[in-house]
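input
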Amino acid sequence: MDLDKIRDAAERVARSQGAELLDVEWKVGRQRFLRITIDKPGGITHGDCEAVSKEVSVILDVEDLLPGQGYILEVSSPGMDRKLVKASEYERFTGRLARVSLSQPVENCSFYEGRLAGCSDGVVRLDVKGRILSLPLAGIRKAQLVVEL
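output
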């Protein structure tokens, strides 16, 4: 199984549907599970997910990108508490509250919650209680938006 080939196929299909590929996750447990996350300006509809799912499924089967036993394919939107992966997402969601976990501590801390203040040159800026921290994008283990009600 070549996750890069799967990612390339999913990206082509998402683009053809006017969407952007955000993430591809492959998990093996009791069942083999492939999750594809897509987004587009204005949000993703159920119809968008269905169209991408049908097209990707055909490619996966025709090109035998997931050989062996069956698998579950899920195509979804990122949701309100979406993961942040690309530099463009940190910039797009400037001003939104986010939780960020780091692989290496910055100022003796590996977890921060604050408002995104942009991203450039591989550095994410996070406003934590009025203080702007510079966090290396490459050092972010996990980041996601926080739902504010």
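quick obs: The two ends are 41 Å apart (CA to CA).
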